[in-house]
């Protein structure tokens, strides 16, 4: 089943380059390729168009790439961990926890910037990690993660946090707050800036390096717990590593971009379809494919509804789902 | 026997009051009865209800002289207080806070709409503003037999027309005319007081910081700022009245003036979150101002006051 991965990886890199260049051209200021080249070679921050290119468009592109990579990886890890192809990064309640954190911040604080720090992403991160911790605590027994229990705990806690978030939104006094919450819940890369990019970049880099060593265990784990154990995989320990990695990746992304859906579910499947279940370069390719997919969705969002763009979460679902269903029907590959 | 008893009781009760007081009581009773019959005759003359069409094109039937009215929008409450007999206003919503007298009225929640509470008040007609009350809520109210009159304003003159319409509907045309005439004169003098400038300053007014929502081209702000001597920096037409803008779009707009909070406040919040925007002219020249939210947001009879406030800001060097 395993195929040669190099051409696919190369293709995804080429696609990424094309998307990045296209992404640099989309915006309110008119720019051509020559101008982009000039700007990247001799950047002059005094020129507004160049400033927009380097300080606004580029970080947004990088953010979309990192978010796509992070969510796709996280989805891959979750699917391997619970050995269920329906799993996605938000299984641990990360998205609803982050939403609750952000909504708490939007509705209870009058001043969102304290000591120069914009609080909503921090609150979202705290919400994401606390919820994940709670779900993991409920989904484990005597230090062992029980996949079925973890899944159900995730669903239950997600419902609870979603209800609390709903309550806060309902009681919200201002229309502006409500719009912020709705806007936030659909995901956007508009707030991206160079200052916050190191966090998701660090999480993705650490995950990729760590997972190079775990790739084999991960693939074996996909075959089932019993087989993995007989093949010498330390299942309990591997699961813990996967949960921590997935939570960190998802938490970082959701805190900065909001809960962008569907990437973490679809991209791991595409990866396995293209490279096979046990491909060695699966994780790297999954990250690249996720990055390409989300950047493509963001470009589409910006082109369809300028200038602010549609929420990227809508695009991933509106365009991703039909594509996914088409593949599902056409390939009929066993999940 | 019974008759006698009754009369005796009546006489006895009369005697319990001192004589002058009894006479006074009788006279008052007579007077009230007289007034009531008088009133009835007035109603009998003008009993035919009015068939009217509101700004959204809805046709509705309302009493010739509505006696119990209320509004579902803070701005409309201000309009009613300016034109209607305030005793006929039966309630306010949780957001209505101007004029102060309105705070004494019972509260009906407008969102979510307290349908039962509203019906219990038996209003003759309910007034609202397009976009504030959902079409669904309007339909439900009308199904319950409560006519809903909706107004729409896209220019400052629409507010004046709205006041005139309210005056006509409520049988207070002279009061409305007096108010509208004085407002029109005031607005005209405000408009004329602007020194002719080669280029009007381009003003961007933000309503929310994350995402950045602004007053679009198709809001009343465009006309207000024109009367104040400026122009809305947003000239592109968006489907939403308050569109979300990207930082790049604002950088390109490069507004001369930014409205949404004092310089100090926005410097520590808005410009802290979006340092790239410090390059816009408004920030560079420190022409960043806060404004009274109610005045700016509400299409109300205080429109001249709002234009005057904007004019004062634009004149600040």
UniProtKB/TrEMBL annotation, chain A:
Record keyword Heme present: no
Gene3D superfamilies per the UniProt record, alphabetical: ABC transporter involved in vitamin B12 uptake, BtuC
Pfam annotation, one family: FecCD
Taxonomy, superkingdom: Bacteria
Bilayer topology: Multi-pass membrane protein
Cell compartment(s), UniProt: Cell membrane
Stretches that traverse the bilayer: 58-78, 90-109, 115-138, 150-171, 196-214, 240-262, 308-328
Keywords noted in UniProt: Cell membrane, Membrane, Transmembrane, Transmembrane helix, Transport
Family, as annotated: Belongs to the binding-protein-dependent transport system permease family. FecCD subfamily.
Protein name: Iron ABC transporter permease
Organism the protein comes from: Hymenobacter lucidus
